[in-house]
Amino acid sequence: MRVKNFFEVAGSSQPSPLGKWQCAYYFDAEFSYLEQIVPTKNVVILTDENVFGLHTKKFSGYRVIQISAGEQYKNQQTVDHIIGELIKLEADKNTFLVGVGGGVITDITGYVAAVYMRGIAFGLVPASILAMVDAAIGGKNGIDVGVYKNMVGTIRQPNFIFYDYSFLQTLPVDEWVNGFAEIIKHACIKDALLFSVLERYSLHDFRTDETLIADLIEKNVAIKSAIVMQDEFEEGDRKLLNFGHTIGHAIENLCRLPHGHAVSIGMAAACNLSEQLSGLHFEDAKRVVLLLSKYHLPVDIEADHEKVFEILKMDKKRLADKMNFILLNKIGNAAIYPIALNELHHHLKEIL
Ligand code: GLY
């Protein structure tokens, strides 16, 4: 096991100017080590029925709240249920909420921990690729409201993120595919070298080589952590992490797609738009589409463009009649472009 603090992971030699980063990363850790970090009597674990069913033994001795698995349960009703359970367990300000699961669990854990008794400590044990490289990092939490993804939430950092790679042994292939969308996103926006590594290897290589996948996860954790450390509240560079997510979020709940699939289609659309807009000299949409396809991700969908536009307008990145859209200058180099809503409306049919 390797323990690192946030600054080390983010590649910074000195504490962030924000001065409030206490998040510890435990890499290549065994779940049983959790009891060394927080006294078991203070812990309440939040997980979903799938993770609980597959890893029941790991949870022995802990108080556990289980919720139904799936994005459709990432809502206020589930939050009310969890809070009811915390009250039944007489959880107090010393209670430490530990979310064990994929992105839905990490998002809800952070949110409940932020609001229960006006805030309790929390840690995350991401159990999917997507949660390990993305959802567990950065402090954004929240829930959906109908088709609107992550409409309600806060930004609040976990006390620790705990990587037990044994969870990946039971991860369905579809979930591996889902997670690679965010990995390809990191390569597209920040790291051309990572992009070529992904071109060289295959999903099968990563699924069958423990060292290769551990290195890939830690590389992606570093990319995301470095961005978050510089811009926790998404006033600048952190917006780049939304590459593929503007259209992705609009189609995710509308078309009932897994998050990674929606983001993949969103990235392909954003690459098409990057090629179409004059002023940008992006020429690699095909290369990105090829890489997404290589990792079994979809790159287009039959969608009702008007409905997509209606949802897209409510995206948190909209400011008045402009959308801050993330486009690529080249692979490994993204930028924020404000695009007028009517121009976006016009392009939507061609890019999606
Ligand atoms: N929790 C995901 C993020 O902060 O981006």
What does this structure look like?
The protein has 15 helices and 12 strands. By secondary structure, it is α/β, with parallel strands linked by helices. It has 2 domains: 2-170, Rossmann fold (3-Layer(aba) Sandwich), CATH 3.40.50; 173-351, Dehydroquinate synthase-like, alpha domain (Up-down Bundle), CATH 1.20.1090.10. The strands form 3 sheets. Strands 1-2-9-6-5-3-4 form a 7-stranded mixed sheet. Strands 10-11-12 form a 3-stranded antiparallel sheet. Strands 7-8 form a two-stranded antiparallel ribbon. The radius of gyration is 20 Å and the shape is globular.
Key attributes of the depicted protein:
alpha/beta, Dehydroquinate synthase-like, alpha domain, 7-stranded mixed β-sheet, 15 helices, 44% helix, globular, binds glycine
Number of domains: 2
Structural class: alpha/beta
| CATH level 1 name of the largest domain | Mainly Alpha
CATH topology of the largest domain: Dehydroquinate synthase-like, alpha domain
Sheet with the most strands: spatial strand order: 1-2-9-6-5-3-4
Number of strands: 12
Which CATH architecture of the largest domain?
A: Up-down Bundle
- Measure the end-to-end span: 44 Å
* Whole-number mean pLDDT: 93
| CATH homologous superfamily classification of the largest domain | Dehydroquinate synthase-like - alpha domain
What bound compounds does this protein have?
glycine
- Which percent range fits the helix content? 40-55%
Could you give the order of the helices and strands?
EHEHEHEHEHEHEEEHHHHHHHHEEEH
Total DSSP helices: 15
Unreliable stretches (pLDDT < 50, length at least 5) are none
Largest sheet: 7 strands, mixed
Rg: 20 Å
